[in-house]
Amino acid sequence: MKIRIGTRGSKLAIVQCEWVRERIRSTNPAVEVGLVRIKTEGDKILGSPLSKIGGKGLFVKEIEEALLDGRVDLAVHSMKDLPAELPEGLILAAFPEREDPHDVLISNGNLPLSELPKGGRLGTSSLRRAAQVLHLRPDLEILPLRGNVDTRLKKLKRGDFDAVILAAAGINRLGLAEEISQILTTVDVLPAIGQGVLGLEVRRDDRTVIDLLAAMNHRPTELAATAERAFLQKLEGGCQVPIAGLARLDGDALNLEGMVAELDGSRLLRDKIRGPGEQARELGASLAGRLIDAGAGEILDRIYGRDEKR
Q1: Which of 78, 98, 108, 111 has the largest count of CB atoms under 10 Å?
Q2: How many angstroms separate the CA atoms of 166 and 171, rounded?
Q3: One of 73, 81, 100, 103 is an active-site residue; which one?
């Protein structure tokens, strides 16, 4: 039996797929697992911020098309790249245990965020990161930064920026933890929806692959990701809006915190909710509703250019 994994070609994407491949082989040694590299639109367009060119689906659309066409049998995504709604016929079959969900600062001089020079240049193309950093340090200059992790670190080290913000999960998976200057607490910078989670996407009717992946599922991660994605879906969120959320399971209870912010960080709305883990989807939608009532709806309408109010 052979399983074909569809993946982007970046070093991080390959590392993540190889990790999944080894987990499949460990429980099913007779299964042959191959990688099929697929270039997505997001990989081709590097000159513009994601918020300007279409949002989350940029890194998954071509891979999902290959899944639906039968050219690959499994897609391994960074969950934060996945839109809140999947194409008809595809499902997330397993959620391996989450990596560190935090954002990290990597700076020249190994300085923390609070000690970056006044007017310092910080590289990120994430509106979510930019808004929260500007809320803390409105004096900083936020500059767009695209490309894989190696490219971003090279730009930092050659002096294009004083600091960059990246996901701890990717840095850890690439074995670059020694580069981290500061792990940003969720009090300061709440992570992206699904950050640190791998989403294993398959065809809904492919019971063979679904059964092969079952052993990799980590229930606490599944519940956390479900709550966060329900939160995102209710907000109709994409890369054009600074939205963040993080859920954690505490015994049988799920704690979810969410945020919506103005683009310039001048207004930042946060709230949290706690409830039974088995009601993850309902908790996510409920928290989003509370933030909408608190003013997030106005922020969303303004950013999306909608005339009508929620």
Answers
A1: 78
A2: 8
A3: 81
